[in-house]
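Quick question: what would this complex look like in 3D?
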Amino acid sequence: MDDIIREGNPTLREVAADVEFPLSDENIILGEKMLNFLRNSQDEVTAEKMGLRAGVGIAAPQLDVSRKIIAVLVPNAEEIEENEKGEEIVIPPKEAYSLATVMYNPRVVSHSVQDAALAEGEGCLSVDRDIPGYVIRHARATIEYFDKEGNKKKIKLKGYNAIVVQHEIDHINGIMFFDRINSKNPFATTEGMLLLD
Ligand SMILES: [Zn+2]
């Protein structure tokens, strides 16, 4: 999984092919590998050992496989509280992840008029430079996809999860995050746009 292709590689600009059901073993294993990669990348010890950059999402085209498969793994934040002695204690979240899944043939089927962007901008495992600016996305989106058993799923997303999934769905359509930054004014906002921390 150190074979992530970088911007400039034409695969990242292709519209990826739909996968067919029932899924081939190859496509099931690829999805599992992608999710595993994200898990490893978020584990400090493993990431350092393997030289991985932490990621919350990855799309098959980033592995030079032009198929509509994405994996997302968005951890919930830990909470910090103070005990009676005034010491900070870390409280792990009840659920480790707010989103942890492999999606086959995902697409946005409806979305809010309202836009949203991450205040800090976006990064990408296929882009080795900082590109400042607001990446303008839908604040809320309904996503349809298939799970590995071939069941059709529909989920409504908002906030950070909505941003992550839209970033990955863009990859299977040949779109890079910087395409969505206003080139003349990178920090321009649209009416009512949400800025997410
Ligand atoms: Zn990316």
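Answer marked as accepted. The pocket of zinc ion is lined by residues 124-126, 167, 171 (CB under 6 Å).
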